[in-house]
Amino acid sequence: MYAQLVTTEGGTPREGMSDQERAFQERIDRNEKIEPKEWMPEGYRKTLIRQIGQHAHSEIVGQLPEGNWIGRAPTLERKAILLAKVQDEAGHGLYLYSAAETLGVSRDELLEALHSGKMKYSSIFNYPTLTWADMGAVGWLVDGAAIMNQVPLQRTSYGPYARAMIRICKEESFHQRQGYDIMMKMCAGTPEQKAMAQDALNRFWYPSLMMFGPSDKDSVHSEQSMAWKIKMNTNDELRQRFVDQTVPQAEYLGLTVPDPDLRWNEDKGGYDFSEPDWSEFYAVIAGNGPCNAERLGARVKAWEDGAWFRDGLMAHADKARARRVAAE
Amino acid sequence: MSSEWPLWEVFIRGQHGLNHRHVGSLHAPDAEMAIRNARDVYTRRNEGVSIWVVPSSAITASSPSEKGPLFDPANDKVYRHPTFFDIPAEIGHM
User: Where are the residues of the annotated region Disordered (chain A) (predicted)?
Assistant: First the structure.
């Protein structure tokens, strides 16, 4: 998802737990929220920093592929809407960074880890946005996949994370609908416009399926994260839900999902579908996607180019404070 | 290495005359910028009519480990709730 392949720190098996660890696990089992200054196992804290941090980074890096089209939106209204959406993503990043900071990591440490490549962001943002139809596909599919994951996370065990998710989910449905609205418009347009919409779906379908991460059978630490309730569903469950929800939406648009093996399975009450190419996923995660260097480069440049501005405002604030103290 | 902007806690009063409520936090160099940033991140959809910002460092919080003893005095005083008292039905609403 926005957090993929997060390494979970090993927890203690229930029988070997100390009293403190057992009491902690029992609170989670009772659906109590864990709050910042409360005792928590070190593994829980570290795993959450990784997961929330990666999620925050994804929101911020996710601004880039869409920012690419703000200056070229087809109408002033579309431009204003896209601008508002991209601004929301900055807000989502902020809510999540703030949640991570309550675990004892600083904002600068998180950004430094992103810039040095030590922390990742979602693989999806390493794909280019080539046409305006991609803005439709990103909102519809990428934000749609994100919602799939974020709605259950509103019930996650860590209070600040759950509260950030609640705010984000409220805003996210605007994102998905604006994307689908773009797709509807394109699909009702000229044959060339509809072909652009189909092309966008073709390119974003499998990368969207990858957002949920590899199959659970290959996901070693899922179980511990689920016991801690920082992962609420398995990757495969969420992927299935996403496909079941999205296929009828594609049919409504008159578009074809680029999977010849896609078919309804009456027995399981869901679609059978092809797995994405996981070797591509691992290559993108490892830094070899089409836009990895460009995305990270843009983030690092923004951080470095903004240093004088951040320092300037801080110097001004310090001076103003000193002046106030002197006047008192 | 530049120094990180301080952290501020943000409180918003919603439309309907309720108390300011904690909505989150943000970094800003000073109070004025904190208010401006809070406007941009926490009231993009008309969520508020008033904003307070407080330096996070100025907040003193009760300690989670003392939760038991701190709130214990309230536990055995059920008579503080109106439903403790049985009022005959013929009295009507009270």
Answer: 1-20
